[in-house]
């Protein structure tokens, strides 16, 4: 059911420092920061030849990555995102197999496409995002 790896997300405590590291030290093509208030994050895309790295920093008071950074003050790998053809079909299938979907409906993600998140407890300890291709 899943297709390409769309992105790997890394939560960072210091976004400008992480941007400088990927752009200047690693030589990557790095986007401008994008505020996504509906997701509670500011994100920067690091464009690699075969996928994207999403640098995430908390935005606002109820950011879903705030607790993660409290537990991991130095940052860490936050989630992986796979592409699916039909987000509603994927959502139903996951729920029917007892995997918790973390929103009642898909939300529009950073790439303008519908996304859902699957609870890490049912996904081998990894938070998984599914994005409609
Ligand atoms: C940029 C936009 C968009 C895109 O299009 O790409 C994004 O990627 S937005 C990214 C941010 N959004 C989200 O993460 C939404 C989904 N996340 C959530 O709903 C919550 O963060 C969560 C995963 C349900 C965790 O909620 P929280 O309130 O933080 O619960 P706990 O802290 O109590 O954690 C419970 C349990 O889960 C473990 N955990 C939490 N986060 C992760 C993680 N990222 N990876 C692996 N495990 C995680 C946490 O350690 C707790 O475990 P126990 O202590 O063993 O119970
Ligand atoms: Co993401």
Automatic annotation (TrEMBL):
Full protein name: methylmalonyl-CoA epimerase
Pfam family, one: Glyoxalase_4
CDD domains, alphabetized: MMCE
The family this protein is said to belong to: Belongs to the methylmalonyl-CoA epimerase family.
Enzyme's top EC category: isomerase
Gene Ontology BP term (one): L-methylmalonyl-CoA metabolic process
Lineage, broadest ranks: Bacteria, Pseudomonadati, Pseudomonadota, Magnetococcia, Magnetococcales
Span of the signal peptide: none
Catalytic reaction equation(s): (R)-methylmalonyl-CoA = (S)-methylmalonyl-CoA
Organism the protein comes from: Magnetofaba australis IT-1
Record NCBIfam families: metmalonyl_epim
Domain VOC: residue ranges: 4-133
Entry's EC annotation: 5.1.99.1
Keyword line: Cobalt, Isomerase, Metal-binding
Single Gene Ontology MF annotation: metal ion binding
